[in-house]
Amino acid sequence: MQIVLILIALVVLVLFVILIGRTQGTGKKALLILALVVLVLFIAFRFLFPMQAAPAPRGEKSVQTDTVYYRHASAYPEMHTGNNEREIPVHVWYPEGAKEQEHPLLLFSHGAFGVGFSNETLFLELASRGYIVFSLDHPHHSFKSTLSDGETVYADRTFIQSVMANPGDKDLATNWDDLRSWSLIRMEDLSFVLDKLLDAEADNRYEGCIDTERIVVSGHSLGGSAALGMGRLKPADINAVVVLEAPFAQDITGIAGDEYVFTEEAYPLPLLHVYSDALYGKWGDIATYAMNERLYESDDPKYVTEHIAGVGHMGLTDMSLLSPILTNWVDGGLNTRKAPETLLELNGTVLAFLEIYNP
Prior knowledge:
Blueprint: H1 2-20, H2 26-48, E1 63-72, E2 86-95, E3 103-109, H3 120-128, E4 132-136, E5 144-146, E6 152-154, H4 157-165, H5 172-198, E7 210-220, H6 222-233, E8 240-244, E9 252-256, E10 259-262, E11 271-275, H7 290-296, E12 303-307, H8 319-322, H9 324-330, H10 339-357
Parallel strand pairs: 3-4, 3-7, 7-8, 8-11, 11-12
Antiparallel strand pairs: 1-2, 2-4, 5-6, 9-10
């Protein structure tokens, strides 16, 4: 903030010099005007993107980072990244000196147009406490994915258009079809990576370090729907699910009037569902969240619902550190707390759940 104030003072000074006309020649005046424009743009950038420091991890272990890549023949050819296959970049956070068979795993899927670093504050915290975190970039769904050969893949135009045009409760059939297809692509990615990590014969550098009895799948928004679907798909391989505000897209079985019909089968795993002010307590107003309401009202203690107040949907990610102003704008003004405070509460909420259900 201090540097911004200094720059503003400099802008005022330059503007004053220009206005009083104490510059000789049009060349000098043009340079001053250019300098003024550059300063104003820089101040605007610093104002919009203050780059707040993330809360430091509080665990005892030093954290290392890595990126690994997985390739497979996807069932969705439009999602291929080249050579008739799909490459998935995976960002890794792990404790320094990771040892064989000792570390719980958290497998994470970002939201629509998100990136694998979307919740790095949480990933660092978990890794500092012994977790290995795998956060996937989903090519064509991610804002930006960098493949192993350096090629950049941006969010697919058709995917962007379908998300922006999604009708929600106004057209239940289209909404259901969209949510199901989007999350199935994510689940394919998550399932493939998980299978590789569980395959003792696979050639990867982390499989031997993972405690296969302590695997958690997690995600935000659309990625959360995929994580919930993974809990249904692979309950024998997963110990718990952690979701940041997402509907049970794969639990919808049909449509009855103006409501979705959801499966009657109990959700098979311990589940932490974290909500912001954007959706907490509003499940009854949104057709896709009827299953969320059912679990909230359940007496089963393994279904845990937590509400982080003073924050909106995107405020549950690290986007609020990069630009609190833009995040608050996207969230409709719901973010009334400083980002580090919110993220620390989110970390504590997740850790408290994992201490019970993934000890």
